[in-house]
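Dear colleague,

Thank you for sharing your sequence with our group. We've completed the structure prediction you requested, and as agreed, I am returning the results in plain text so they can be pasted directly into your records. Please verify that the sequence below matches your submission; if there's any discrepancy, let me know and we will rerun it promptly.
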Amino acid sequence: MRIYTRTGDAGLTGLFAGGRVPKDHPRVAAYGEVDELNAALGMAMTLDPVAADRELLESIQRDLFTIGSELATPDPAKLAQALSGPRVGDAHVAALERAIDAHEAALEPLRNFILPGGTPKAAAFHLARTVCRRAERAVVRLAHETTISTDILTYLNRLSDLLFVLARAANARAGVRDVSW
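Please find the predicted structure tokens below.
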């Protein structure tokens, strides 16, 4: 199978489980932003310490693929056939909240806004957080046109909070202070 198909050369792209839309369609923008978030998270995972939160982060990457699949599949019946596992829902959000609570318990209480940065891993988590917020805005935009699971919006909102906490935790692990604004 070749990586190039030539089917997108005229500005259209195929949706997961069928159908074609323009590449600038809000649906494509939404799942494209989620894909970029997944790549930003993958980049953060490659930075030392690599083993830190690896299982959690890989689980989130799988969730993001599921979210992207849902955003790329407007037909609920086709989505149900295409997905191999459950859709992202309350249990996934609860897992993010548990991770936030566990990491925050080990951190100094936040008293000020902080500047993004610190260690390379923390900076990468801060960047992933901003990409997550952009993905969330793209999904909100799509939700103005069509029905989108509110669980996706909740998940992305909570994920951006987790990425912020992971950035602070990465700095704390390395003994690097967050810089107050």
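Summary note from our side: The domain at 21-180 is CATH 1.20.1200.10 (Hypothetical Protein Ta1238; Chain: A;).

Kind regards,
the structure core
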